[in-house]
Amino acid sequence: MKNTKYILLVIGILGMGAGVYAIVTGKGPSEYLLGLICGASLVFGYTELSKQAESRNE
User: Fold this and answer.
1) Could you count the other beta carbons within 10 Å of the beta carbon of residue 54?
2) More confident residue, 54 or 49
3) CA–CA dist 46, 1 (Å, integer)
4) Half-sphere exposure (CA, 13 Å, Cβ side) for 11?
């Protein structure tokens, strides 16, 4: 489970980075919004898995 959380985090950060890169290079909104939204949702999934793991330990 620990590896899954880190994979979510890394892919999410890379996706958000791709979205920011698309904004900087002047791509269309459909190209950068997809990266930002998908990346943010993966980072959110990482935080939720972390919260879930912490609540099990209590």
Assistant:
1) 9
2) 49
3) 11
4) 12
Contact at 8 Å (CB) between 48 and 9? no
Nearest-angstrom CA–CA distance, 17 and 9:
12
CA gap 17, 38 in Å, rounded: 11
Provide CB contacts within 8 A for 9, sequence distance 6+.
42, 43, 46
pLDDT tens figures, 3-47: 888 888 999 999 999 999 999 998 888 888 888 998 999 999 888
Query: In the block, which residue shows the tokens 């904004």?
Result: 23
What are the structure tokens assigned to 40, written together?
């943010």
